[in-house]
## 1
Amino acid sequence: MTLELRGQQEAGQYVNGEKEVSEPNPLQSLAVLLVDDQPANLLALEVVLLPLQVPLVRAASGREALKRMAEQQFSCILLDVVMPGMDGFETALQVRETPLNRLTPIIFLTAADLEQDTVIKAYAQGAVDFVKKPFVPEIIRSKTKVFIDLHRQALKLVEMAAESAAQEGRERLSLLFENVQNISIFNVSPHGKILDWNVGAERIFGWPANEAVGKHAGFLYTENEVQLGFPEKYLREAKLHGRLQTEEWRWRKDGSRFWADVAITALKDMNGAFRGYAYIIRDATFRRLAEEKVAAARDEALKASKAKSAFLANMSHELRTPLNAILGYSELVYEELEADGDEHTLEDISRIRLSANHLLALVNDILDLSKIEAGKLEMQIEEFVLAQAIGDVVETARPIITRNENALEIEHGDPTIKITSDRTRLCQIIYNLLSNAAKFTTRGVVKLKWTAHSTADDGWMELTVSDTGIGIDAGHLEMIFEKFHQVPHKIGKHLEGTGLGLAINKLLCDHLGGTISVASESGKGSSFTVKLPLHISDPLGSKTRPKAELAES
């Protein structure tokens, strides 16, 4: 029997290989959940934690971990930060939405050095500690044991509270209460009278036990809240459903407030008779403030991004006017010099034209990016023959491809297929891929292959541009579509560009309802594949304008 299966059986999840159907108890298990996408890491954790003699449950992904947490409560979660799909931070955020484990402590496991903002974000999502990989077995075992022991104490507290209302039981319970100083725990009678008050409650609320015990729980609420029916509303809800959990601002004796994580559990005796409530309140102010800081930082970042996009759009627009003038006048001068046969000056004017065209292309990239980010990209949806559009782009890009002595190969699809999309943006995507392939390939082959399959109501086109150029290291593939990201190269010349072409392609594919992907190996070339629907009516996040209106602008 594996450790994982044994842990599940001991936790009461499986009987004879089948899932046991039973009503979950929020505090029924000391099990520890281990979350890592690497089986070797899971096995190492199991070996290290086996001496703790508690059930160890495996999860190989964030989604599997959430499934496990929906089935049972854990005393502690050891969560890997870097996982494919849903990473550790995203998983931790979802954990706080699971009824059984929203308060379960999380220890993050990471091999990376995290920045302060990332650490704050992690604590806001429920982290209690970080362990750096490779970890020291004694350290991670000790840290885990602390939370198992705390959970075991909580199990004892609830168990003792449910056993009997006798004085002897209360004395044993109070001894345990004294060991929990960071959590407020107190019992309330069926009518709302406070029966006991632990050291944690004294520390968090500031009220000593002799001033709290005997009072109605309503003294912890403001006059306005009492008039609105609190805490009676909470007590009725807890009695009806067995347990109530909420978060809210609460006030201390000195008038200061703290963000409280409140759990109210209805208690029953051994015969099932209702005997009151147990309050467990934790001061979650630090987490609340961290969440607010993260939210404020996010809002400021979004605001700054919008301002940046607006600035870039305005500047790009203003730059295009003088650039177009430079191009126009240089063209006139070039024609006059060519007529006069002034070859020496023609070479200088050619450099001016080349530089101006290059600068105009960069300005256009920045303008496109800023419009897409601001949600103001204007697109023209029309029906056209796909083969004709691709052919036009190929002829435009051919000089760029042959400049580096490359061969161009074309593998055509059905020449009769029509597509309803934005012709200009589709051509822009294809041109960017061809020019990108030409830039990183010398004396090689650039190949364009496309196919399309049309149905009555739907259909897709697939276009692949591949090359035999320098390729991309595996470590850069995930970032290849990020803005301003340029892959380091080992050839001895400067490759011009802003790192925006592929980023714009990704955004344009998203707007046209499609996808773009890459496959590459360093030194062996790259292959980019675009998949787009043959028929779209409203591109994502864009404004569509009639052809005549676009022509006028």
## 2
Amino acid sequence: MEHPLRVDEISALEAPRVADAVSFAAPVAPLPPLPNLSASDVTFLRPSDPHYRDFLAAANTRTQLSPALRAVCKTDRAVAAMIAWVRSNGLTFAVRCGGHSYEGFSQSKDVVIDVRGMAGIAVDKASSLVTIGSGASLYHIYQALAGQGLALQAGSCATVGISGHILGGGHGLLARSHGLTCDSIEQVTMVDSQGRVFQASATSEVDIDWACKGGGGGSFGIATEFKLRVFPLKTVLVFGVTWTLSQAHAAKMFAAWQAFAPNAPSTITSIVKVQSAAGGLITVRCIGQSVGSEAELRAGLQPLLALDRPSTALSIKSLGFLDAVTHFAGTLDYESIYMKAKSDYVLGPLGADAIQHMIAAVAGASGVALLCDAYGGKIADVAADATAFPRRKGTQFCIQYYSSWMHAAATAAHIAHELVRRGITVAAGLATGIDTAAHQATLAEGGRTVAFLGTGINKAYPKDNEALQREIASKGLLLSQFWPDAPPRKPSFLMRNATMSGYGIATIVVEAGETLAVRFTNPENPFAAVTVTT
């Protein structure tokens, strides 16, 4: 089994081991009286409830939060009531389905409106339609469809929820043969900010229908049900091949994949994964799926195979649709890991110089993988303005930059490693947890670190930080969070950074739950022009 975010050579990066960060739950203010809803409408979960942790896990542990209240909604009525309740009480909230938002947009410290209580799946084979509750996972949808010889074009991760996936567009291993997941939408049932329940389709609420096809979730209302077009599919071909190459040869292989994948027959959807290997080499792995013939697939891959001898031979297998799902899923269990990923759309072929720079960057970034999903095919058949997803004709591929690690403290270590490599000063407080870890990781990397004391230069900290304070004072800079000659008052990030402005022209402040970048544009007078980015 092989998940597109993994290859055998890609493993979670073990950063220099510092004590795992310790998180302390902030005291939770008493909640207002809850909406008057029955158990058939909603399950309310507070931190003290025995099933609270059953619903807590997020795919990215780095962003996981523990809400004061999780409302697992089972009906439209419950969703409408929860929207009215958070609005009238001025509470912050998030909407959750599968919990795979890379940056935790389905997480909240206050209230989570969780739609996993609405996960029903009804297949109408005669009409080639499926009606799906917005809390269903992709694997359960695939399982229900495969039992009737049907399929849906969607993602490869089994535990991804349908809502965030389809509302954001939805790419998968049937994308080039059948389009994005959002292209299958016939109707969306939604609850808006005023609690109104309505259906959006090509003939009703057409602006919302357009926006739901790739515009992202959580903006226009809370989706509670989808009606989607599906299609007959019994078997597919899955394939994979790996090369371990020098940087120069890896650049040529990537160029060959780029020439092939976005322009291949629409029956073939291909992914290439690139990362550093031992001895300064580069691993290039091409995987994918085809609904065409094996002869067509082999012909398409031949230019890549002829360019360099694979380190792992080409494998092509014919599998049933659901078996192919499990082949790429890797696991059907819900997995949580510390990770960071971002992506770009490549709108035209990368030139040779750009590819060489990209490969060189990968070679110098241990633990970072590039994951490229081919576009074109049926994706490009939809006009750029026909849906809210504009990356259609001409888009070559999506390139994702991905890294994962095993321990909470490694989050600070990853940040420190990259900032030290770039010559950027790392600054943090001295609280136990991620602040301490950031200092330790920075010093271990040979970097410069700045520590801020809370209420004055002589502020006493716990004894377990005394040695660290001495090391920071000898190798970096120990500063008061406030003006040394002023009484303690409310912290100001801008004042805090102005205090240390003479230390360097670029500083990153890393604190638990906060990241602030400050760049002083006039080193002679750092108070004259300050750019703050949060």
## 3
Amino acid sequence: MEANAGRADSEYNIIVYVAPTNALMTQIAADIYLKYKGPIFGIWNAEVTHNVDKCQVLITSPAILDKILLSPNWASFVSRIRYAILDEIHFLALQDSESWARLFMLLPCPFVALSATLGNKELLVSWLNTVRESRPTISIDVPQESALPKEEVPAVITPSAKGAKPGKVEKPGKGVAPAGGWQKTRGDKGKAPLHGAMKEEKERQEQSKEASKQLLPVEEKKQPVELIVHSERWSPLNRLIYVPGSSSFLRFHPAYALKIRDESLTISEEMEFSSRECMDLHKAMCHEEVKAMLPTEEHERLKSLTPDTFFAKKNVILKSDVRHYAVALKRVLNSWSRAQIARVLEILGSQNLVLFLLVLLGRQVENEIGRMEIEAKALGFRDSYATDYLSSHVSDLVRLLHAEKNLPALIFTLHRGFCESLATRLIADLETLEHKTRMEEYDEQAARNRVAEIQQLDSQIAKLMAQIKRLKQQNPVLEQQLAELQDRSSFLQMQENGSSDLRFMYRSPPEKDEISTWQLRMQQKLGFVEG
């Protein structure tokens, strides 16, 4: 970005980011905006076209970049592309394959192609090198001044002077015009051009040369495509699983997946374990029931894999050390699986040692899944993996992520319809929760107001009753005011206590019992008895 400082919008060097989905483009645009705090990016896809002409980073799709590279109208724009980032290139085999293939051939700049799910990486690199070597190149022969036709060579005709030969040709800038002007020479038709005009013409030609260098790509040396493999993550993955109805996430050990998918129960060398997962695996391997199945010599191997023993010479444990420790654990576990050295316990039936060990790693997960299946059937769902059952818990998942400060998050599903139903259900649940929260806040404020009003009414009732008591004769007006205040206070207390029984919507005066007061009050309201 610093290279573009001080340049006009039409002179910016451009980086192109190519992604196959609109969602990924939007995410990258947000990241760029947050990092650089300005509209330096442009986005162009099937839905949005924004700031394409003035951008420094263009975010687009393979099909649209393909059209840009093939269009003569965009030649000036293409000449300013300095680098390209092609993300998720495994989509080459899924969609827009022709556009992807043409991009590798037509891109006039270095590029980096990214993917985390490539199978045969070497085959792809070989194909890319073949494509890049066969791509056409455009070379420009910029004419030098000496190669110009003679009639176009700038020349200045010197004036006729004493001792000078008429018609002598000098280089521009050496002649001085006399007061009488310039003389004609033999073979010249008309007047010779003025020195100032020749200078402007030369500057115009030089500007034209520079422009031609910028607008058209110059032939460059073809660089081979290199394969760079990152076998390790910057930070390890935390593998967690959420079972609907659970109050927290459960740790999911990757080795437990072998129990479900791999009948050979062999752990691949490419399966990565974090430091915590290594500790969990070693703990399961040292379980008493596992040791009971092992021969004596295997106990010694387990002792050598104890962390205190394995890292005894390490003052600081690095990521590479953890990786070596994981490899040692996997080798021992695979030897158990291949050799079948485990004795079969009667309580395990036909299960072998490795299978029992994997059950130990996933026991908590299996228990929660069993609870979920029973709960789903009790609620009337056809099974616990039905989309309607999972949708009913998506808001619980989001609230749990929020409670553990793991938002924002991306939720992926391979079914587009299910993805839309999850979003619809989440919005509906959040709106319901927002309404409930607002009502609770309103109820809390209303409760505080009720308490304050009840206290105020009680004070007024006490003063009014004292005033009536001081009078020696009945005063119907004061008694009516007292009854209204008592009714209002009783109604507020009923709301405060959550009662809806009308019999509690009054407060009995001290000298009368509740039933007689209630009957008298109702008769007065119905007009059978005068107040």
## 4
Amino acid sequence: MFVKAQLKNRNFYAMILMDICIFIITLFLSYFFRFDFVLTQVDMKQITNLLLWMVPLKTMIFFLFGLYSGMWRYTGVRDFWKLAQACVVSTILVMTVSYTHLRAHETVLDLVCRLLLEKNN
């Protein structure tokens, strides 16, 4: 019943859209700071690949933690802790997936070394 009322609220969609924009901007900023404000095509491809699964995952986690259940003017300490927990859980999931499945942590040098090692074996 609460979910139906929530889906009719236009502020609900505004909050989700703002969070999605924040997720995208922070990923770009992290890459800009990491690579001294110079992004290559490889970096842009990594960002695109990350955004395709990371934004829906983080949005779903925020929804599951109940962050979209109230308006911001009623936010208190309890909501802050829910936000902190959702951020920690989503960060752990993103790091786990990217390091185990996507190999987003590898640089071009790492890939060359790994390919050379595989070729020798």
